[in-house]
Batch of 4 targets.
Target 1
Amino acid sequence: MSETRLLIDFVMSVARISLPLTLAALAGFWSEKSGTFQVGLEGFLLLGALCGATFANLFHSLAPAFAATIIVGAIAGLLFFVFSGLLELDAILVGLVFNLLIAGVAPYVTKLLFGSTASTPFLPPQLHWTVFPYIWLAFIFFGGVFVFNKTGFGVLVRFAGEKPAAIESAGYSVTHVRLACLALCGAIAGTGGFFLSTYLASSYSPMMSAGRGFIALAALIFARWRWTQTFFVAVLFGFFEALEIYLQGLSSPLPVQFFQALPYVATLVILLLNRKPAFKW
Amino acid sequence: MWRVGLWVCSFTTVVLFAVVLVAVPANVVPAQPPIVRVGLILDRGGKNDNSFNSAAYKGAMKAKRELGVYVKYIEATDIMSFESMQRALAKKHFDLIIGIGFSQVDGMTRVAKEFPHTHFAIVDGKVDLPNVKSIMFEEQEGSYLVGALAARSSKTHVVGFIGGMDIPLIRRFEKGYIAGVHKYSKNTRVLTEYIGITGEAWNNPSKAKEIALTLYNEGADVIFVAAGASGTGVFDAAEESDHYAIGVDSDQDWMKPGYIITSLVKRVDTAVYSAIREQKEGKFRGGEEWWGLKNGGIDYARDQYNKKFLDTPTVDYLEQLKRDIISGKIIVPDYYKMKAK
């Protein structure tokens, strides 16, 4: 009885921790597959978290807040593309600046709306989805499998990243494909942030993305930009973090740092075991 | 051509944005600054962290109201900016510059040396210079009290402790808490977890919530959290799974009424106010200043939100412990001194 209970708790824990990671990693997939290297995932997550808590506070309801977060995320993706695509700035620089911009704008927004540079007010407990986040994740995952493998758009995305000249000569616009992918990326990563502040916590607090965007990026690169693998690697990272939390609680004589390092050590070991030249553009 | 247009558009956006950012805070500065000028540099949590920085801000604002001093506060966003903020205030001839949080120690050590005639105060850290007042708290004493209360409130005989970043200061909370738990009951187990080993640990409520849920699942029914802004995640977990939590630094009982048994209160507001008053009255002295149970710098919170947890026998018990600690009958283990041994 107690073992099953423990196992269920652990699986739930892995699911919760992986949720924002998987969404961010799958979001990054669209951007990177279409040829825009995406280091702005951290910023998209934070933006989503900010929007989620802010809109939920303003609307007193989650569904419209969710929709609004998707819209803001998509707009942020478009904005990203204005700089990285239209103005042809280095995508890595744009991403880094984007992260800083969001981190800087967030306190300003919360100050204007809630009179506080730190966190938004708490959401009441009834504003709390418990099942929908996973339905949404499944929708994003299987939807992605379908779109990427079975539709013309999927083919265009592939070519936009690997052979942009080919789709230009076929009469399509690389710019349009990348633009759509960036909007998609912003929207999906935004929902990851939305769950971070409304499902995994009940308010927004500064920098609450806490490096998850970069872990998601690592998962994406680690999985060599393959959809299903990306999903599972992100879950694997979630697994190790849950394991870290579980083992730390067992009051062992080992120092805390040992457990804290576990997810990263595990990542390194797997990387070593899985040593092949990474995907080339 | 359209490319030029785009550049112009983006440039205009940036400029407009900058203008808005600069224009709005400009109204806040008063026209005539009074004689004593106090600069307050808050840690990354910001003045509304409902914890440590909120308390410091409150103390400074009280001083501004009651003593008529000029107070300028700055919120740091990253650890690298402390030193330049301190130097900027010193260059502008502020009389007293107060740094909140141990992260400001290194910067202040350098800046206070450069400006030997400016007064500095640092909370939660020690700078050994004649013009710096190092304000420190006996966190272990309060942790001992809330530890005893946690053990007294626990039905499962398992309680938890969640620390933010793994630093000596938080270890001090932990050791005092464990001693308090064992004072009430030797059989109560304490499960300890830390959120992280970097500064992100202070701002990661989702991970704090996950850790709290794990500890509650492992049998703990009361968790004491000392983790800055991450603490709210533990309160969420307590509410969601119907368990209890203990807050820290400021009185946090109001945040989730009915789920927060009490809070260890660190009167950073009193300490900051008193430093400003000394400056105003010309009695400012450098050196260490300790705040503990005996001078009211450390206490446990009692208000309308946690009445149901603190019945008369419980309060009597805690007050007795408090008297014993003050009189020296109970010696609470101090991590700082444990390390020295």
Target 2
Amino acid sequence: MENKELFTVSVFSENTVGLLSQVALIYTRRCINIESISASTCSIPGVHKWTITSWSTRPVMEKLVLQIEKCIDVLKAFLYTDSDIFYQEVALYKVDTDLLLDEPHLEEIIRKYNARILDINRGFTVIEKTGHNSETTALFDELKRYNLRQFVRSGRVTITKSEREFVSEYIEKQNKRKNDTLQGQ
Amino acid sequence: MKITGAEGLIKSLICEGVDTVFGYPGGQIIAVYDKLYDYQNEINHILVRHEQGAIHAAQGYARSSGKTGVVIVTSGPGATNVVTGLGDALMDSTPLVVITGQVSTAFLGTDAFQETDVVAVTQQLTKWAVQIRRPEDIPGAVARAFYIASSGRPGPVVLDIAKDAQFGLTEWSHEQCRFIRSYNPTPEIPEEDINEIAGILNNAERPLILAGHGITIANAEHSLLEVAEKGNIPVATTLLGRANLPFSHPLHKGMLGMHGNIGPNIATNKADVILALGMRFDDRITGDVSKYAPQAKIIHVDIDPSELNKIVRASKSVHGDAGKLLASILPLMQYRDRKEWLALFDKCDTTEISEVISHELHPDKEEMNMGEVIDVVSEMAPADTICVTDVGQNQMFAARYFRCRSPRSFISSGGLGTMGFGLPAAIGAKIGAEKRPVVLFVGDGGLQMTIQELGTIMTYNVDVKIVLLNNSFLGNVRQWQELFFNARFSQTQMHNPDFVRLASAYGIAGEDVTDRSMLSDAVKRMFEHDGAYLMNVRVDAKDMIFPMIPAGGVVDRILLNPTTKFSI
């Protein structure tokens, strides 16, 4: 069997009801587990960007992306591996303040991981860390010593390394087609 | 003036050119049926006997007429009963707009009586599915539905309309949809691709065109003929593309795939260039993909980009309309002799005729074969006859032995292989092309899956000639059991009713044909009869469809019968 690698799919879509389940089913049909997913509005008005990561192989993922694009309300979908993109995740950690204050190297930890303290109260402290999965995991391992009460990690967000902005180009092309179509009426 | 959403729906359908709908009323669509009552002069509603019949009839209608088929059913079971047809239409690229009633918005998600989450159920089996909750949203959704269903790669669309949207009042105006930002159904084929493809074909020693359903959908049968003739290139057709070229055209070399003709399958693995047009390399065509067309430079043209490089890696894949491509390359095509290449097909045909076809058509036994029955029907059928099939041996024999002579004359359930498709599809095909004769080839298994539609034939006097190839077996499964499961005929023998008497109960004429000597007179009577006719032909259950490339086999390793392999 081929070795699986981690792929990131960026989907640009209209904001319509039911599209999420439609896209999720495209993964389900191939028995591919979604590792992480994040979705929100993007810089283009009305357009939502989703970032979905999953372990698979390239031939499978290439076909899957075309199936996603086939959904009527999807504008564009792109397939990336980690080397094609800049990506980040946010992690939050909730630890006991008492234990943390006893730690002689607290400053060192915060500094070493370039983390941020969001809130300190008598009971607990909330720490935030932005980075790659391996980095937030490393801090997680470190903080386990301080009675880590909660740990949460977001899905991935990405920005491409490409000079071209393919979605904007697509929308421009479509707008031109719209004008041609309506004028041709 | 404000009108109800239900009336707006009907007015929008009329604006989209709809004059025929297939359906079945029910509690959550009753408001629409009430308004249909007022529009009986504009819209002809065909009341079927089961919702599955409605959707298959709409498929037949869409495929014979080239128009979008429309289905109206109620919520819950009404909607779930059309699911098979949605899957079938999606696989076979058939434009449908299916309107389902839905419970009132206040009841959504409460497990209300006859509530089903129709959008969720149908999402994976449609090109687009949407729920409408407000009357003012109906015209826009209808316009979008027709645009999506009929453009690009056609397919089924579901509009799930809540009861209060049907009853609610709204101002109504309808504007056709011609643009959706996230959808491009008319991709342009770059000039350089056209030149390149024409160049590849002109230089090819052993080219082969694979013509699929996309040619039919694009109404490009004539362009195909012109390109083939001008370039002197042999054409093989897929199951759904059988009517793309007249059966007996010298460049039409037959059908591809598992039960296709020997020539095209052998040629696939000898060709140096394959031009695949509007087809999707189904596994029934490719067999073992790793040993498929090893020598060929494959040019794949399809309007659906997700079909490109899905099964077979193409040397050149083109996202575009197969018909437009043919029209564009026509002026560039050059005639080449290719005598040796074309002789290959003749050589294969000679073997196929002596080893397979002659045994099928002129058997040395008492019982009749399916192929010989179809051959006689084909011989006596008018030139513009539409051949509709069910699924199984009847379908494969019809695809092989019925000689389609005009465009859109072969309608069958290809991708999904839906038994029970035939009878309702034939009804729809006839309603969509009233002037053309329609012949249905169906087995005793498939006929009984939707046999209730004999009632629809009775009500509307639909002139469908039903040729029941009755072997009292589920023949195709029986064949596989015989070949691959030590002839253990598990659950394939059918205990059947008296079909002619059954038809007679519906006022449909018919007769039993139990002997070869009766056949041609019976076929003559069938075609001369004014109205529907059921010919119950007793055929040999032991008859098997050959040639055969076993599932997953290599396309040039063809069985001529259970024990003999073809060799050239």
Target 3
Amino acid sequence: MAAGLTRAGRYSAWALARHAFTGSAWPRAWRSPEPKAAYDVVIIGGGGHGLATAYYLAARHGISRVAVLERSYIGSGNVGRNTTLVRSNYLIDGNTQFFEHSLKLWEGLSHELNFNVMLSQRGQVVLGHSPVQMDVLARKGNIMRLNGIDAEMLDRGAVKRLLPYLDYSERARFPIYGGLLQARAGTVRHDAVAWGYARAASALGVDIIENCEVTGFQRDGERITGVHTSRGAIAAGRTAISVAGHSSHLARMAGLRLPVESHILQAFVTEPIKPFVDHVISFGAELFYISQSDKGGLVFGAHIDGFNTYTQRGQFAQVQTAAECAVALIPAMSRLRLLRHWGGIQDMTPDGSPFICRTPLPNLYFNGGWCYQGFKATPAAGWCFAHTIANDEEHPLVRHLGLDRFERGNGHDEYGLGLWTFRQ
Amino acid sequence: MLIPCPHCGERDYREFRYAGDASKARPPLGSTDIAAWHDYVFLFDNPKGGHREYWQHVLGCRRWLVLERDTATNVVGRSWWPSEGSPG
Amino acid sequence: MSRARRLGQGGYVDRSRPIRFTLDGRSYAGFAGDTLASALLACGVRIIGRSFKYHRPRGFLCAGAEEPNGLFTLGSGARTTPNTPGTMTELTEGLIAACQNGWPSVRFDLMSVLSLAAPIIGAGFYYKTFMGPRRRSWMFYEPFIRRAAGLGRAVHQRDPDRYETRHHHADVLVIGAGPAGISAARAAARTGARVLLCEQDFLVGGSLLGEGAGALEALRTEELAGLATLEVMTRTTAAGLYDSNTVVLVERRDHARPDPARGDAREILKIVQARAIVFATGAIERPLVFAGNDLPGVMLAGAVRCYLHRYAVLLGERIVVATTDDAAWQAATELAAAGAHVTLLDERAEVGGELLRRAAASAATVVLGAQVRAARGRRGVRGVRFVSPQYPSGHELPCDLLCMSGGWSPVLHLTSHTGIKPAYRADLDAFVPGGYAAGHFGAGALTGAASAAAALETGSAAGLRAAQHAGYGREASVPAAAPGVAVAPAAPARPRDAHWGKAFVDFQNDVTTRDVATAYTEGYESVEHLKRYTTLGMGTEQGKTSNVNALRQMAQLRGIDVPAAGTTTFRPPYTPVSIGALAGRNLGQHFRPVRRSPLHDWHLANGATMIEAGPWLRAWYYAWAGADAETAYVEEMRLVRSGVGLSDVSSLGKIDVQGPDAGEFLNRLYVNEFARLPVGKARYGVMLNDDATVLDDGTTARFGETRYFMTTTTAQAAEVMSRLEFLLQTAWTDLRVQVASVTDQWAGMAIAGPRARAALALALPGIDVSDAALPFMGCQEVDFAGVPLRILRLSFSGELAFELYVPSDCGTALWQHLLASAQGLGIRPYGLEALASLRIEKGHVAGLELDHRNTLDDLGLGKMARTSKPFVGRELRGRPELQAPERWSLVGLECQEPAARLRGGAILFAPADPIQGHGRGYITSVTWSTQLNRFIALGLYQGGLAHAGEEVLCAYPLRGELVRAKIVSPVFIDPAGERLRA
């Protein structure tokens, strides 16, 4: 349970009713303090990961002299731009455990933060469209079971019973052979994650400082001792970068070059309609995933646009690709209307896996390179990054996610796609 | 986005395939400098601003070209053949 | 029912063409030229929906695309289309419409009890509750929330309609055919520039359609048809602006009752590439914010005018017009002229004398300094309460229609799609585009032009400048941009703090002033937080009527200026676009291109079952061998192992490599040696990625001193081709080599089995296919019946085998000839499943073994590498973890349990291991071995063949299976290679 919240600030049905009848105002969800001169830990980036890291530093490691510096408003980056999926159906050693830890944290998060993040464990079905693809799904499902994670193989008939509105006709270009179901996978209300962590961290004494852009690092030789910001210099015992999408930009200020390129991933939402799709569905023929938000919009996403950019707006060709996938998967979607599409800038890495680690510079820590999977990783990334910062040593769940792994030949390629730059 | 192919003229980007930073120097053939290969293959400047990058006109003349583009705005500049080294 | 009535004359409706339609099963009639909204209003229908959250009765607020309330579900059956604004629905005969969000009906809605819970269910309430009592409690509450949310109901049937995609090129694209747009298009087209003028409405004229008689006629739109280079597209919305002047338009054709059987499109997506763009998108009127401002009968003043003039519908008898600016005075005088009893309430204490003179000439009563406090009524407005100097404690006027005007918001969505931030103009109390990219020009109300005259002037200037930018009309003198016509400054329409009742900011999402205040108090004060916390502007109209009002209230609460409070980012599309229109014709079998072998038709005619292999369709198995893949492939394997079979391998990538340095080039690509490959020989090669994972394998034959014929796997053909070109054009530009993809030029077939040579000899008389003439890995180019034929003696199956390549158009002839000639030997075709299974017995890697995670050494091919020469991937191959002895590498597996089977995707464990975690490896490919009479497999195992002879457990917990297998060499048959050398 989130410590530090005053009785007046605690959320509950009872408190809602009390506020409604007394007309009293709720307190601010998180404080808006002026930056102090020094902190034990300064976290650059007020996204989901940065805020989660701050929360776990305060809640689990007793470090509350922490500041989260956000260039804009908190949650302005990818935590508020993704397609809200959470799941732990991961194949390779390290990923499976990390994402399952994350899902377990998701399962307790609303209670932990006293903020309803609306974890909806509606189940995800990943479809297979060939016998070989079914073998690949089987391998993943077997690994999940062997790691204590729920997984169920569905044949074509079972998929049809569960998702009768998919295209099972002769017209389907890529027939459905079956699918892999993870019942515990689902969706989370994405903005609530940033707000919930911010509120809980703030209650524990973490300073969340919005509209504060980091412009450089203070250093003592190799050691990083703080940051320069648009709101003045701030000294820091330890400094952590958590700015997915702009990792290279911050790293360059510290003189580091990263195995990261910034790419845009678009997301799409239809007009709100009554319940239409009750699960998370992933197409197997191309990268495409869809679910319906509680508000009624069908939220979907596809591949990155395919070249590096910081523009946060996508190319139209990718809109068409996503729409084509939507209709290929669910022919009735043709009649629905696209309400809005937007883009997020994400770090892409050579092996598709992220980094949570120390850096070559003492007292500087790095979390980034999340590719497609930053949102679902949020709690575990915060958890492990906080541990890494607090102990100056990588958390066991992320030991394989160091910056030096390519030098050692220890790439961590979940999908076996190889160097992604050549695979677009 | 339109990309000027030196051979075919301005074409929609979907006719092309992207292959990353063209300012990175591939280590010379036979180089045994593993660190140089590591940097070439795995590290990126990833600038927000001017970027020189490789594209191949796969659905056109199939030639590889170097394009100048601003990654902050997607405003496209000049393009030239890799063998020309620079736009001159 | 309201007192609205259709006037006997005027408007752009055709009274000689009545049109019948139904709403919720009840019949109504309107006229040609009506929208669903105007027809319903003319019929006196006032309540047309219930609000999203509180289920309050709602009527139309607007007359255009910004309508937040009047959404309908149109059509029936598979054509059911929810959430369609009635204001944009052209009335067509037999139209079926249904109201949304009311139960049992919108006129009597039981869910309206939710209004009572309003104090509890304000902004963000769901973040504060529904958490208990248990951890998964949200799963209990969520279905109720989901059912309550959402607007219309969609159907799950396949959309029967057809959509198209077209590409257009224009010198000048003009968006919006109001006075500014028409004037711009006319000016640009007169220079000879090719001009496209698009208009979302079914009539051109824009705001002039809602002016009095003669306004539109003055524009002389009939002249547009005479301009040869101008194309006008009505019913066509500019949905989005993308990089490099790409504009996406969507044309709706529902009015024409498109028949998909005749190839008619319901909607047409038009992707326009324009040299210059004129934005003449107009402006949208803002509501005033006061308690009860959502009651049916409270409408925007401009909309009421539009219904009056365009549709000839007078919407009330006792009308109050409440305004903060000049524009609504026109509405008041015109409504009075049409016979209504009109009172005008202006918040400003002083206004221009001309306004007063004109009002005095009409029958309208004017009250200055009057602020509306509340609209009264339950199912429709019945009165309005206001304060004024004369009535400081308030006064109430009865009315049946309340028109409001809180200023105008320019439609700047498109320019902001490409990242241009809106800029606030205090004189307009509105945001305008913060700038224009090169080649972009604004005109009309978008730029703050307040009158039709100013719109015309800014329009023609923008049109000319746009034409000039596109290279036309240089000689014409361009008038300077018209100065904004002076208008009396509008009084900022400050939201009133409503102490009773609800004052709505966002009508569609039921966001009230109280919700904005809640967001502020709780710290959600950034405009994006406000939006996301309260859901403001997240509905189908994306904040078109609500954004500025909410911003202004937040700025007021924070004690800062409106511009300092920021604006939200507008995202495409401008109005919602059918997914079908975006997908176009790329659906069903046309979702992605299908690649077919030259032998495709033969396969279909001869009992093949086809299967997708990436983009290819390949013959999976043949009916002669069995009724399903499981039985057929085994029969086909037996045929190849004991007799002779023929298989289609046309999908393999084929690359022609030529030039004096071709050998050197291949040497650099492949890990093994190719430069010294003799002419007339072929060799198996592996190429790596720069990071030393395996990219591809295949056989390359040398047909001449400078001529090689490379084959690649089906999956990697395009990738390899591109890589070859990349290296030649960027890195090794000194090499004199040309490469060309010839995949589609050659049909390929493999003839395999102990009788393959005999079969070939029968089929190719006169060609020496003896072991001496064509030894293992030998190749020949011959002429057969006037056709070039390439014969490569190589084997994927492990049997004596040949691959034959002929020009694609001769493929079927050769295939049939081979089958006919060798009929006596029992030759039959075999499919992909058998092909992929035979190679497992022989230990050839393919498919899942080549997945970009594996290195040469992982696949047991490390000895192939000639490290004395440079090749792609050589250096990074030496990285320590890639050389670790405990890496997972290729092994063969033999099933040890006669009653059990091996399965792809099973996880491997040593017998003493606990069966958990990630194991020591996994199975990639499985087949029944006709040679060993058991299931065999290939897989990757920790330490690889160092464990040969050991037993492992193959875990498949998805089926609860645990099967014993033995690690063996991946070459299950003929390890010495005697068969393929026979």
Target 4
Amino acid sequence: MAISLQKGANVSLEKIAPGISKCLVGLGWDSRSSDGADFDLDASAFMLNEAGKIISDQHFIFYGALTSPCLSIEHTGDNLTGDGDGDDESIKIDLSIVPSNVHKIIIGVTIHDANARSQNFGQVSNAFIRVVDEKSGEEIIRYDLSEDYSTETAIIFGELYRHNNEWKFRAVGQGYAGGLHAMAVNYGVNIA
Amino acid sequence: MEILVIGSNTNITQPSFTIKHTMTDSIDVSVFCLGENGKVHNDNGMVFYGASKSACGTVTLESKEILMNLNNVPSNIEKFAIAATTDNGTFATHPAISFDSSDFECQLDTNGRSESALILLEIYKRNNSWKVKFVGQGFNGGLKPLAEHYGVDIADEPVVESSPKPAPLTTPTLTVNLSKISLTKSSPKVDLTKKAGQIGLIKVNLNWEKGKSSFFSSGIDLDLGAFIELKNGEKSIVQALGNRFEYSPYIKLLADDRTGDSSNGEWIHIDGNNINNVKRIIIFTFIYSGSPNWDKANAVVRLHVPDMPPIETQLNETSSNTGFCAIAELTVKNNTVAVERLNRFFKGHADCDKAYGWGFKWSAGSK
């Protein structure tokens, strides 16, 4: 039975799935049914230090770099349209091998080419983030963003962070203007 | 008051409100009443030019206004989608569309829009309160894909069958006639494209909703009638009242529909091939019984001329409480026939007679 979180709420992974190490973070949204350019949404992960900055440029996992150097995070690949049921993109995280200097993992979703296509999250329906325990295959956390975003082009869906030697998940729902570029720059990634 | 951009939403604070808009008559507004699955429950869930009020009474379409009353929304309705379609071309050929209401305003820039059907606003339930969202997404293919998106069945264009088959029984309210000529306040007149004398049979149809009989009111009985004046000065009236069903060979009233239940309504046939002897014909309707509430009757008059889209005029732009309405006038001049919308309301036959110079004497009668 998944725990459904509201914006801003957090929960301890250890408490709801004792012994969890490998988890899958699934992100979903509905593809557009009307005419016009497809919504191409991209999930990314940022591995941050205690100061909230990226460990290195290689610790920014996105459609252009699918695996972290430590192999603890793997992006399963880019979905260009949002077609299909269930997760549209997913990120696999093995919490047991995340380097100890990584304090927080931010999971964000951005709209590709949003300005040129005049798109924003307010036009995307049924966006969600969920965490699945890979061992049991069970969904343990779900956060539906449907109303918490609006006209932004980049949203932090959720974050995994260390707290008193355990991992917690927080439903963030924080929007950014400026898409993936602004989000990456904000965490200290050097963007060409 | 919140100014919405595409994708943004805000709370509705007043359950009963009016949305004013700037769309011209060449754009048709429709509202879809949707369940939890984002689809209509049945074809009555589409409010449009053929059915301008929702079954639940929540939505009323008027010229330049959409009236919403969210006080008594059926529990199985979660969302209302306000959409617009254009008969010809894309929205790029139309000016920007503005909405103005007590809680919000917004404007859709039509520049470069390739769609001919747009979902403009959604009014939806969220945590037991109502919100509005500016959507601004649509379909290049127009009303058909839009209606199908919401689960409404749209009749396809009729297919010509090679072998003759009996005409299927149709229920007009369930299908959407995508081609039409509407006579409205701003475009009240149309010239028939054919020469008088070669028109064939012109059929005039009056249809209306009977309305629910209740403790306070019984259904409405509307009668269709016509005044005809020939070029030689002869004049006559056809109507059920007084059993004046025919003025041969020019005009004929078919059977009287006493209830509005018949999907066919009442019909007058005009012989277009003899119309050169005619100077003018005024089509009128009057409430034979029932309260004079034209809004509730949803009366529509359609003229069917062979090989032309139906010419339609609705009796919905009034709060008149008088029982007689002159609907349209056909005039024959220089071998051409023009149809003009009148929609003038009178107390009765005598008043209308005076206004249009018929010259009859009137006394009360019944059928």
